[in-house]
Design a protein that fits this description.
By secondary structure, the protein is mainly β. Helix content is about 5%, strand content about 50%.
């Protein structure tokens, strides 16, 4: 059986990430804030073949971070930071472009597989490059 795929591809066509992403799967893009150095998360879900921004975790209100009223619900994470839950925004065309940060920023794709955290560092392989993060729907059986 074919599965939807989460792929991260450089402008030169190098595939950095290619993992099964069946409907209901969750994954995050995690990176270290360039000033405060803490981890920030933007989390997505495959909702019936649509990449949807589900929620975001931000340990404080550092530069470039924050909640936009009317876009999700801000709740405490119990540790001085906050989650913005229920963003639930479809990503146009199931893809977006990211300029990958330096290794200190360490942009990475993280997900759970068999209850184990998995991660692939984009910065280790494509620092300073533009990459496309995309959910590719499997073709329906004919």
């Amino acid at each position: 059986m074919l599965s939807d795929r989460l792929k991260v591809v450089t402008e030169q066509g190098e595939v950095l990430v290619d993992i099964a992403a069946p409907p209901g799967m969750h994954w995050c893009i995690e990176w270290n804030h360039s000033v405060k150095k803490f981890a920030v998360l933007d989390c997505y879900q495959n909702v019936a073949g649509v990449m949807q921004l589900e929620r975001s975790h931000q340990p404080d209100f550092a530069a470039g971070l924050g909640h936009t009223v009317g876009r999700g619900e801000q709740v405490s994470d119990g540790e001085g930071g906050y989650w913005i839950n229920a963003i639930d925004e479809p990503v146009p065309n199931n893809r977006y472009v990211l300029r990958v940060g330096a290794e200190a920023v360490n942009h990475r794709v993280v997900w759970l597989e068999d209850d184990h955290r998995r991660e692939i560092s984009l910065s280790a392989r494509a620092s300073g490059q533009r990459v496309t993060i995309q959910l590719i729907e499997s073709a329906p059986p004919s």
